[in-house]
Design brief:
With 402 residues, the chain is mostly helical. 82% of the residues lie in helices and 0% in strands. It contains 16 helices and no strands. It is found in: Cell membrane.
Length: 402
């Protein structure tokens, strides 16, 4: 992957992984995995904290809702712009050095955000926060996929997705403890990013040495190699962003109270976090492609049932499962990435995932909002259902070709 941790040729990697990632319990690098997952979880806490915190501050300042939304979009835009540079930077600078550098720069950017609490300076600062945070996420995820034994990839990637989802949920919850005024809430993120760098330093000696070989792959080149996989990531990202941002509008149109809608969002997020381990185990038995198809179809069924069940008690189990299977599409994408790609193509794939996730997060809500303006509040389940239907059709077509 990098100077001290580079990728070997495909055959060499397969031999190396076969020899070092036996399915036996004593061969699984639990310490390294725990360190990598901890790194991304701490990152998720910091990211999950900043979105609501900065929105609360801007709202108190009387900022227009449109500007608040534009400000929030700057961080995923930073993800998108930085993604194509990550494979090259990882090769030239070194994965560990790049991760530590980015964690330090992200902390400095967050200090600047806390110091200058104005909407227009925040536009560029939030963009830079996404730009510098993204490589830390991509590199850590690539390391985890690389060292995960194939026979246990499903459950470990499911565990990873669950823990990281929990990290994103802890971020907003922490505001209840420290409030949204002054420096205390910012200090959580300011401390979290350097902590990520320290964890990386501790984990690096436990990671396998990978020499600098293997075919270099760009993010653009990966699009040509796995378009359906990237469409699945787009679907998962758009689905999550649309539900979290627009279910309030949908519920309000159906006469639901704000407190009930907020609880439904929490239930959706809980399903997202809790069900990934189970889906990972299912993927180990049935295969990741078949499990992804199940997730897409189950998400589609949820879209169909949402209008009739929204004001009934059955909405609670529906939304819980809906959250799990919709994010399960992304978990299955991670599993497939590890199954199909190795070496430098793997880090390019993870960078492409980050790029597409950012696109899905930015495009999903405005597109669905437009649909809701054109055809009414049922534009939300209709838009989400259409995406899931298209993904399911493509997955079935790929299975038949295979």
């Amino acid at each position: 992957m990098t100077t001290e941790h580079q990728f070997p040729r495909a055959a060499t990697v397969r031999r190396h992984l076969h020899s070092t990632t036996s399915p036996r319990e004593d061969q699984i690098p639990w310490a390294a995995m725990a360190g990598i997952i901890a790194t991304v979880t701490v990152f998720a806490v910091a990211q999950g904290l900043t979105y609501p915190l900065l929105s609360f501050i801007l709202e108190r300042q009387g900022t227009a809702p449109g500007l608040i939304g534009l400000s929030a979009a700057m961080t995923p835009l930073g993800f998108i712009v930085s993604a194509p540079f990550i494979p090259t930077l990882a090769r030239r600078v070194g994965a560990a050095r790049l991760a530590i550098l980015c964690s330090t720069l992200a902390a400095l950017i967050l200090i600047a955000i806390a110091w200058k609490q104005e909407v227009w300076p925040w536009m560029s600062l939030r963009f830079l926060l996404g730009f510098f945070a993204n490589p830390l996420y991509v590199i850590s995820e690539t390391w985890l996929i690389t060292i995960t034994p194939a026979p246990r990839r499903g459950r470990i990637m499911g565990l990873y997705s669950s823990i990281v989802s929990g990290g994103f949920a802890i971020g907003p919850l922490s505001l209840g403890l420290v409030g949204t005024q002054g420096w205390p809430p910012f200090m959580i993120g300011i401390v979290a990013f350097p902590l990520c760098g320290l964890i990386v330093l501790a984990v690096v000696p436990r990671l396998p040495t990978m020499p600098h070989e293997g075919e270099a792959t760009s993010v653009g080149g990966f699009f040509a190699r796995a378009p359906l996989l990237l469409f699945a990531v787009f679907t998962a990202a758009a689905f999550e962003q649309v539900v979290i941002s627009l279910i309030t509008v949908y519920g309000g149109a159906l006469g639901s109270a704000e407190a009930r809608i907020a609880s439904l969002i929490a239930c959706f997020t809980a399903g997202n976090a809790v069900l990934q381990i189970l889906l990972g185990r299912v993927a180990e038995r049935l295969g990741s492609t078949r499990t992804m198809l199940f997730c897409a179809l189950a998400s589609l069924v949820g879209c169909v049932l949402l209008p009739s069940l929204f004001n009934a008690w059955l909405i609670w189990p529906l939304v819980f499962v809906w959250g799990g299977v919709s994010f399960g599409i992304y978990t299955m994408s991670l599993i497939q990435l590890g199954e199909r790609f190795i070496g430098q193509a793997l880090i390019a794939g993870n960078a492409a995932f980050a790029f597409v996730w950012g696109i899905g997060g930015i495009v999903g809500s405005p597109t669905t909002g437009l649909a809701m303006q054109l055809i009414g509040h049922q534009g939300l389940p209709s838009s989400l259902g259409l995406m899931c239907f298209v993904l399911a059709v493509f997955l079935m077509a790929e299975r038949r070709r295979g």
